Amino acid sequence: MTKKNIGYLTLVIITIAIIITLFYEFDLFGIPASVMMIVRWVTAAALVLNAFVRKNLTTWIITCLILGVFVGLDFPDLAIALHPLSQGFIKLVKTIVGPILFATLVFGIAGHSDLKSVGRMAWKSMLYFFCATTCAIFIGLLVINITKAGVGVDVAHMPHEELPTTSAIAVADQKVLDHIDESVHWVFKFNTFIRDTFPENIVKSVYENKVLQIVIFGVLFGIGLAMVPMKKRKPLVDFTESLAEAMFKFTNLVMLFAPIGVGAAMAYTVGHLGVDILKNLFMLLMSLYIALICFLLLILLPVALYLKVPIKQFIQAIKEPVSIAFATTSSDAALPKAMENMEKFGVPRKIVSFVIPTGYSFNLDGTSLYLSLASIFVAQAAGIHLSISQQLLMAFTLMITSKGVAAVPRASLIVLIATADQFGLPTFVIAAILGIDELMDMARTSVNVIGNCLATVVVSKWEGEFDEHASKNPDFLKDAPADLD
After folding, report:
1. Is 209 left (phi over 0), alpha (psi -120 to 50) or beta?
2. Where would I find the H helices in 55-183?
3. pLDDT digit string (tens) for 77-128?
């Protein structure tokens, strides 16, 4: 059979499987669970055959993602046992982050010796980040006020998970906060955020995966190197150029493991959550997905159209990193591939290496939207009415506090708990929604990656350095020597 015929066959099987699943869910023909299991694995066989024929990494990632769902539904214990594979993939990807950020930043700055462009990139990026996250927060508020997903929810009878005990504030800093007036707490917290962006030891920063610290060190090192005479600068510039190229090749090798890592991550999520929790918190989950889709269609898409970004090629460039982010709920896992693909899309390396890592701290569009939506959901579920002014105050509080915890595990939950405490909202509601946090995290992490990829295009267009011809080649994402000029 030809590739085209196998594609059609796969599409037909998927369509029939969806129809049978709908009949099963609505109990129309009394279809037994054993038949549904057969339907799932016939579909899985068709998807695997299609992936073998197409020999495409993105196809394999999507196929393994769906296979992970099937394994989680039919073999939940096996699915949970596969979790170490996804953890191993994320660990492997994290080994790329430090070297690739350092090398691309230093080469981008010192290799071109254009120090003024660094300052321009910084303020333009920050302005765009502020506008994008503000829009995300307001869309979250608007959608949750329309859907009222928390009104009438019986959280008392939902499964409650233990809240994370990690604090976004260090113990030493908390002691200081306990001894100063509350009116200046925000000043101290802002200054600790600034302090924590500075690296104490670059090796330690790479080890702990402190992205913003690596960026700061890379920028300062690149500026310092650019001030050195060409004769002494050239060896280090050549080294960072070679290191960057080697790390991109290393990324390609690591991505060969991506289908297994993604499939294992999805299997674990479905296997340990089950499907019953979705019925309890369906409205919250749908509200989040609707809000994120609105943000993509009403904010990011108009920006892309206004700047005449080739949408089809942009989707091609981001689909692989976004699918990795969706399944693993890790922005770090998507970072190397996102950087590589945006460079192939036509964004200069120096802009990609600055904007994407910085955006991981300042341009969390999906997370910002989720925080505003979830905080109002907590109030609604607890029967607490918040006025428009209170909601706006909460939104701007979230906009500031969410910037300081990019490297903290389960950062969005910590910010949500801290905000709930600050505004007198009960945290037991948050414990009830933790059951679907991973499913929400998939969506918000994906939007974070999309937002940061688009930000690179916005800044490069603004700088007049976007290569309009790069993505016109149908094979622009194929592995090829990068243009270093």
Report:
1. left
2. 57-74, 76-81, 83-110, 115-147, 171-177
3. 999 899 899 889 888 888 888 898 888 888 888 876 667 888 888 899 999 9
